[in-house]
Each structure stands twice: as structure tokens, then as C-alpha cells.
Amino acid sequence: MKILVTGGAGYIGSHTVVELAQAGYEPVIIDDFSNSKESVLDGLRAILGRDVPCYHSDCGDAESLRQVLKQEPDIKGVIHFAAFKAVGESVQKPLAYFHNNVGSLITLLQVMAEFGIENLVFSSSCTVYGIPDALPVTEATPTKPASSPYGRTKQMCEDMVHDVSAAPGNKLHTILLRYFNPIGAHASAKIGELPLGVPNNLVPFITQTAAGIREKLTIFGDTYDTPDGTNIRDYIHVVDLAKAHIVAVQRLLDRKATDTVETFNIGTGHGNSVLEVVKTFEQASGQKLNYIIGPARPGDVPAIYADATKAAEVLGFKTETSLYDSLASSWKWQQTLGK
């Protein structure tokens, strides 16, 4: 059963492709490689023992997307990862984020309707909650004003899906997965987080600092209203996150959803501060990190972590990997990359 994976050569996308293939699906990748490398395809081949169909194309280009779907008939569903995802960068380049993230979903939904594809798993984010009044956040937590243009694009995309689903004659069925903070790498160390240029996420900056690629790690702010003053996030291993997509796809295909749009938090259910991540990495890797405290970044939320009860009760999904093991896998992956 074919599943189109937009952004399938990216960090989360590539791990999800592996889990799809191992669960018996036929993943088909579309990726413009603006934030990924074609070497990821070699990693997928090494893990799966075969090539995965991959189309070097922009899913925001309607005609290009049509050509892919003509060449790959019988696509039964789409997992939509393709998006820009850096909070800080979105503050600097808001138009690029709106054009890419919102525009590509509009195009994708239009073309899906043309080809009669009714199932969508959408890559959303905990940033839709803005700065929450209470923690942990549940799916019923109000979505307050987002703290960044990136967060606003995810809010707009979620709203778009709801509006499309409410339209007369709609056949779209969607599961919105609100991710928390994916970290870690595949156990084989054949694929992992592969940032282009300076990393935007904490863990690759940590591993590159430990490997000597970066002189030091800057922790952005230590005066937040948290126990140690640094940001708190819910860090989920990327393979656990990938497995949530398999469950979501199957739920859509089996028509078990109770509504045309369902929403789930995908996280561990508890938070760790930046300093806790640093200290846990040092334990897991045996490396001492050179880090300094810098100013807080615009757009950063002080603390957020998931209530993962709904995913457990409805999807039967729970995370399996500890923070220690997740960071150990990140370090193993970094060591395969060298300097």
C-alpha cells in the first residue's frame, strides 16, 4: 500500500520511511532537498536493503506533484512533513515561512483532491499552543497567539485542514500530530539529524560541540521561570515519533477515526530543561561540553511539555526510549559523521 511522504529525506521523514517500509507499506518520497542531503537515500538503502522511490521535487509545485502521482498510481495516503521548521529563522524570514509552509499545504490539498487521495497525516507542532497557561498541555489546551511565524504557520495549516474538512462534499480525513521535540537517531546510525550549516536545534549543536566542530554551545537564557532558569521541552526519540505516524496512517485507512479531523499530542509526557539535556548528554557520551549562557532568543517559549494520555488511550501509542538512550544514539550518529 503506497504512502506518499513529503519531505521524506528529512530528519523525521527518513525515520518514518523506515518504519513505514518495515510495517509493510510502500513509501514514496518527494523532497526538494532544500534542508536535507541525498546521502540520506544511501542510509535508507543500507537499512532496508532496497531503494525507496524518491522524486526530487517541490511539493508546493502543483504540476510537479501531479507528475509524481501519475507515475505512482494508487497512493492511499500522504504524510506531510515538508516545511521550514526553525523558530529563530522564521522570525528573520517570516514571508519565506508563510509561502513555503502554508502555500505547500494548499497545493497538496488541491492535488490530493484531484487524484482522490483522502487520507492525510499532518506534521504539526506544540508551537500551536503559544505560551500555555498551564502544563502539561492537552489537545484541549487553547491555542494562544503563537510566539513565532513558524508557530503561526502551523496554526494556519491546522485551521485550513478543519475548514476543508467542513466544506460540503469533503472526503478528506486527517490526523494532526502535534510534535514536541524530536531527538536521537536510528539504532543503525545510518540516518539521523543532518542539519545544513549551523544547527537550529539543541541536540545537533551539542553533538557538534562534543565532536569539536563547534567551539562552544550557547544556552539561550537562564532566567526563565523554570527550576534551573533554562527552557523546558518534551524530548521524544525520533523513532518513537516515526512509529506514531504508522499508527495514525493505519487508523485513517481502517476508518477508525471518530471525526474527519483528529488531533494528538506526540511526546513523552514530561519535560527536561536545556541544562538537564546537557548533563544527561555528558553522562551518555562521556564527553565534557564547553557551554556558555547567552541571551534569550526571540520566539522561544519558556516551558512546554505534553499530556500524552489521548495518544495512549486512542492510538495505543507510548514512547519507549529514555532521554539518556536518545542522546546516546545522537552521539553514535555524530561519530559516524566525523568532522
TrEMBL record:
Record field: catalytic activity: UDP-alpha-D-glucose = UDP-alpha-D-galactose
Domain NAD(P)-binding intervals: 4-325
EC number: 5.1.3.2
Pathway(s) annotated for this protein in UniProt: Carbohydrate metabolism; galactose metabolism
GO CC terms: cytosol
UniProt xrefs under InterPro entries: NAD(P)-bd_dom, NAD(P)-bd_dom_sf, UDP_G4E
Keyword Iron listed: no
Entry keywords, A to Z: Carbohydrate metabolism, Isomerase, NAD
GO MF terms, alphabetically ordered: UDP-glucose 4-epimerase activity
Cofactor annotation: NAD(+)
NCBIfam families, per the entry: galE (TIGR01179)
Quaternary structure (record): Homodimer.
Name recorded for this polypeptide: UDP-glucose 4-epimerase
